[in-house]
Amino acid sequence: MSALAERLRPVGRILEDPDYNVWGCSPIYDEQGRVHVFYSKWKNEYGHYGWVAACEIGHAVADSPEGPYTDLGTVLKGRGGNHWDSWSIHNPTIHKVGDKYALFYMGSDGSDLGVTLEDIGKMSTEEYRPYFHKLVGSKAVGLAIADDLNGPWTRVSDEGPVVPKGPIPSWDDFVTSNPAFLQHPNGQCWLYYKGWDAESAAAFNGNRKYGISIADKIEGPYTKHENNPIIDFSTIHPKVQCEDAYVWMQDGKFNIILRDMGFYNHEYGITMQSDDGVNWSEPEIAFLDAPTYFDEEMPGLDREGRFERPQLLLGPDGPTHLFCAYRGGKYRTSSGVVLAIDPQ
Q1: Using an 8 Å Cβ cutoff, are 293 and 38 in contact?
Q2: Contact (Cβ atoms closer than 8 angstroms) between residue 119 and residue 125
Q3: Which residues of 120-133 are buried (b: 16+ CB within 10 A; e: fewer)?
């Protein structure tokens, strides 16, 4: 059990909405000490797996991490047309870089599916399945930048994603997704991203690994690291993997938190440390299964009982709160959830 896991204290759910699934809550303090959260949301009519078809990024603000939050509306949505991010904008992560704010995200493109989003919303789970898998295969990483947390937001990735898929064959030739950002102590912009290859995707839905793409300025261009993938659990077993990284510096070391996908189990989070941001220590438990912290009824939903998309609220002395996505809640869909990180 890591030192981080020992300090977690449950606070509660946030951003529960009767009309929307809510996911991927990324927090940041503003200069007045208020908490801004950029989060994924999509209408319930698309079902839980509508995240890759119809998601958009919302913005909410509160005086404290536990809320209550005031919804400020949608800040990014699919651009339509045949853009690489035409349909869904998902899994945001927000960071301040110099005097700018950077909002990284995952985008998908459904322009060549031969159906509309309205058609998707009327489909059964089985009817949607082949379209879901095609949309997953279109995922890539994008970026929008603003001078202020309240926008306006300008996409940097208009012509193409900031992290495109790799050439065939390569470890990331099928998908790039779930970005995590760190400004390196040397000033460079390090963008960690999840990827997997078409061969493993065809065999068993893919083995998720992490790589880095590096730029001298936030807008890019980003160049993939020569040692990618830098986190690869497939050497343990072909199906052991990880996702949902968040990276930060603390006490002179690189730290990462991820969702476990088989190292311990599929319900825990894991954390690792590094001296250089490339070579990582053995995983330790970052957080346990969700029922350890929240005594809620399990309504029988897919993916229930575990936290996903861990994101940290960083204060001057390090992380103060852990924000995650969690299925269930009073509307039996999904929402954000907050855990405090008690001081050491």
Answers
A1: no
A2: no
A3: bbebeeeebeebbe
Residues 336, 339, 343: CA angle, nearest 5 degrees: 150
Q: What is the pLDDT of residues 255-271, one digit of tens each?
A: 999 999 999 999 999 99
The amino acid occupying position 337 is V
Per-residue H/E/C for 288-335: CCHHHCCCCCCCCCCCCCCEEEEEEEEECCEEEEEEEEEEECCCCEEE
Cα separations in angstroms, 159 against 105, 137, 162, 202: 15, 19, 9, 29
d(CA 163, CA 177): 8
Question: Where in the chain are the domains?
Answer: 3-341
Distance CA 124, CA 1 (A): 42
Question: The whole model's pTM is what?
Answer: 0.98
Q: Which two tokens stand for residue 309?
A: 């998309």
Q: Tell me: the pLDDT tens digits for 173-232? A: 999 999 999 999 999 999 999 999 999 999 999 999 999 999 999 999 999 999 999 999
Q: Are 339 and 319 in contact (CB under 8 A)?
A: no
Q: Which two tokens stand for residue 110?
A: 């459904």
Please give the DSSP secondary-structure letter assigned to residue 233: G
- Residue pair 306/325 in contact (Cβ under 8 Å)? The answer is no
Q: Within 10 A of 7 (CB to CB), how many other CB atoms are there?
A: 15
Q: Which CATH superfamily is domain 3-341 in?
A: Glycosyl hydrolase domain; family 43 (2.115.10.20)
